[in-house]
Amino acid sequence: MTFLAVVSVIAGIMFGVGAIAAVYRIIRGPSILDRALATDVLLAIAICGLGAEMAINKHIDTLVVMLVLAMFAVVGSISIARFMAKEDAS
C-alpha cells in the first residue's frame, strides 16, 4: 500500500467521523443556530472531500460542484442570519 493510499484512507475516516458528528448535531441540536452551524460544517466537509478526491485522482471535473456547494453554504448562512435577526427584533 502506497503512502498516498494510506493518507487517503485516513482522510476518508476523518471526513466520515466529522460528517457523522455534524449529522448528529443537526438532528439533536438544541437551537436552530446549532443546526445551521452543523449544516455549514457538513457542507465544508463535503467540499473538502471533493477537493481531496480531485487531488488524489488529479482532475478538476468536480470543481463546479464544489463552487455550487460553497454558494449554497453562503446563501444558507445569510438566510438563517437574516431570519434570526427578524426573530430577535420581534
From TrEMBL:
Keywords: Cell membrane, Membrane, Transmembrane, Transmembrane helix, Transport. It comes from the Bacteria. The chain crosses the membrane at residues 6-24, 36-56, 62-85. Pfam families: MrpF_PhaF. It is a multi-pass membrane protein. The keyword Ribonucleoprotein does not apply. It is found in: Cell membrane. Its main location: membrane. InterPro entries: MrpF/PhaF-like. Belongs to the CPA3 antiporters (TC 2.A.63) subunit F family. PANTHER family: NA(+)/H(+) ANTIPORTER SUBUNIT F1 (PTHR34702), NA(+)_H(+) ANTIPORTER SUBUNIT F (PTHR34702:SF1). This is Multicomponent Na+:H+ antiporter subunit F. It comes from Agromyces ramosus. The lineage of its organism: Bacteria, Bacillati, Actinomycetota, Actinomycetes, Micrococcales.
